[in-house]
Design brief:
It is a single chain. By secondary structure, the chain is an alpha+beta fold. It is built from six helices and four strands. The chain has a two-stranded antiparallel ribbon with strand order 1-2. Strands 3-4 form a two-stranded antiparallel sheet. It is elongated. The termini are far apart.
């Protein structure tokens, strides 16, 4: 068990010393939490989830390029890579341009490498 305080930058310094306990056991405070496969931090940002999803998708894309023939690469990409990038996207929907570019970079690199 642990606690994760969801608050603004200004309030986080005020709540720094506050602790919670159950049965005389102090619960540790964490900066981010994984819930249903989505990582959210204490400021309700999904940057860590986005970074992890892009990293996993890039690894699988490289494996697809090495292991499948050219005719099977696109279906393999749709089956094994896109679900990673699209999982729970309504929840962590990237609205910052840099997050959108990170996600789109996976597809851009895959397309460029399959055309060579």
């Amino acid at each position: 068990m642990f606690t994760c305080r969801i608050c603004s930058h200004r309030l986080s310094s005020l709540l720094q010393g506050q602790t919670y306990e159950i049965n005389d056991t102090i619960l540790p405070t964490v900066e981010s939490v994984r819930d249903l496969g989505v990582i959210v931090d204490h400021h309700l940002k999904f940057d860590a989830h986005n970074t992890l999803a892009v990293r996993k998708a890039m690894i699988r894309s490289r494996l697809i390029l090495k292991c499948f023939f050219l005719s099977k690469q696109r279906p393999a990409y749709i089956t094994y890579v896109r679900p990673i990038l699209e999982y729970c996207s309504p929840v962590w929907s990237p609205h910052h341009k840099y997050l959108i570019n990170k996600i789109e970079s996976v597809q851009t690199i895959f397309k460029r490498l399959t055309l060579l």
